[in-house]
Amino acid sequence: MTPQTTGLQAPPHALARSRELTEPALRAAIGRLHPLPRRMAAFSLGWCEADGTPSTSPGGKGVRQALAVLAAEAVGAPGATAVPAAVAVELLHTFSLVHDDIMDGDERRRHRDSVWKAFGTGPAVLTGDALFALAVQVLAGSGSEHTGAAVRKLAGTLGDLVHGQADDLLFETRPWTGPDAVTLGEYEAMAARKTGALLGAATALGPVLAGAPPRLVDALSEAGLHLGLAFQAVDDLLGIWGDPLTTGKPVHSDLRRRKKTLPVLAAMVLDPAAARRLELLLGSDAPPGAAEAGRAAAVVEDAGGRTFTLEEARRHATAARAALSGVPLAEPAAAELVALSEYLLDRQV
Amino acid sequence: MTPQTTGLQAPPHALARSRELTEPALRAAIGRLHPLPRRMAAFSLGWCEADGTPSTSPGGKGVRQALAVLAAEAVGAPGATAVPAAVAVELLHTFSLVHDDIMDGDERRRHRDSVWKAFGTGPAVLTGDALFALAVQVLAGSGSEHTGAAVRKLAGTLGDLVHGQADDLLFETRPWTGPDAVTLGEYEAMAARKTGALLGAATALGPVLAGAPPRLVDALSEAGLHLGLAFQAVDDLLGIWGDPLTTGKPVHSDLRRRKKTLPVLAAMVLDPAAARRLELLLGSDAPPGAAEAGRAAAVVEDAGGRTFTLEEARRHATAARAALSGVPLAEPAAAELVALSEYLLDRQV
């Protein structure tokens, strides 16, 4: 797992295979929605444009569905067992994007308008609610005798998402330096809930539905959690140094938005002089311009924030792999899980 | 059940009894939330003011929790069986108020600012999400062997709420008259989902957790649905003719907001001449002033819309009672259910 690779790796076959398995169920679930949220949900999934015409842009890659399917296969169950889990996780993920974009005021998502920007805030609230309701409905209706445990896991995951998002919103109001500054530990706890929990649910829910032993479920859940933390670290790197053509966001985007991401927090902990400079550049009442953001990026890099974050990504990727290799899992699914994890982290940074 | 009574009926003892049973669990659940949504959730439940000081205004009466407790007792189970159901229904109800107020742009709720008005739209979205997550968590963690069925019912109820809210939002965009006008059948289908489903869940979930026979669950669910429809009809009457001191809303509030409620829709169906006058009064680009709204109220009343709606409330109240009396239920809970229903509908109209 080498997060700083070229981004040119071919998509694992597992993605296409799992899409074939799960997409009919996902489309059937969306098809059951009221026409108003259905169209907005289809837009948020990348299936259509805001006016309802078929989409010209790619949607999500379906990594979470594939994780669910492969995790079920890794505990010896047919991939089909995981379909309700895969659909529920994708719906929960999409729900969180739609509502988070409202809360964060993000106008763009995957090179298009965000749902609230395209349809209005009220309709976007409704769309998120519809997606979440559907996630619970799909999982609760799975027919598996282990549905109760799966729904508990899903509800806990939503609780984590809300908790992490609340932390993230509060971080914005806290000072850059001093005793009330956000610590690296607080940041990791936030990221574990906001990003890790959902990938942990993706890898755990299929095995839960399959009735896998708790030891295997826990190992797969832990692998997903670490994968999520590695993914978030890469995301934080992309938020500062990502190519605008790839990310769809302006250069130094997260710095211009004064987001308290891992590279910045790490730089401030590693180098007190950098902390003072960053506070001057980012801590004023007005958002920094392009020049200030560029200077802040250089300060973060010189202080070691970029390297630290890359090391964090590697550390969590290694921990994910270790969690998988610590328990007996079925092949080829286990190897495919590792390959899919590498693919997920293989983004241009 | 006489919806047009004085509103001076004493609260049934069942309300206090069920509050004693369910409130500790509700407070414990809210206490598990992240501090940010926890405070907003406490505000939305009427427990504190926006600044966190203890509330000076009364919160909800806890009718839904009492319905859950009494319904469980009516199928012969201890009221305590229904506590997770009562808490989940109250959380789901509060979630829907918080998000609906965002979508409807309603600035006031129970004589106070709505959550989005007091805390901002993003935080209100988060609060609703937190409440809904908690509802599923509480019910999924009930420990009952019938949890799976209960969660399916809750998820279906949320699906209904979203569907009903989507209908309600779409109704606003439809014309007052002509082939695309909202029909009375469409209105009832919307109200059944938006209001009936939640009361149907309140009366069904306790019995579901108790493992009651489907025939009893269905009868109680149907009673709750009709009670909800009766409640909505009374609410529609109050939205036009309610005392502003009681409702906390301006006189003729729903007409000034040009809401397509049952009295108006009924008047337009019953009297084509009234329909044309109402379209002139309510259908222009600008919202009607106090004088136009007053004239519209008189037109609705003269056309029979008020009487029709009162009859609808009575019809559904009777149907609720019939559903209860059609199956063998345990006393005194069954009688208390009827008394509580009467209390719920006994509002000044």
UniProtKB/TrEMBL annotation, chains A, B:
CDD domains per record: Trans_IPPS_HT
Output the PROSITE patterns linked to this UniProt entry. POLYPRENYL_SYNTHASE_1 (PS00723)
* Assigned keywords, A-Z: Magnesium, Metal-binding, Transferase
InterPro entries (alphabetical): Isoprenoid_synthase_dom_sf, Polyprenyl_synt, Polyprenyl_synt_CS
Taxonomic superkingdom: Bacteria
The family assignment reads: Belongs to the FPP/GGPP synthase family.
The protein here is known as: Polyprenyl synthetase family protein
Q: Which organism is it from?
A: Streptomyces stramineus
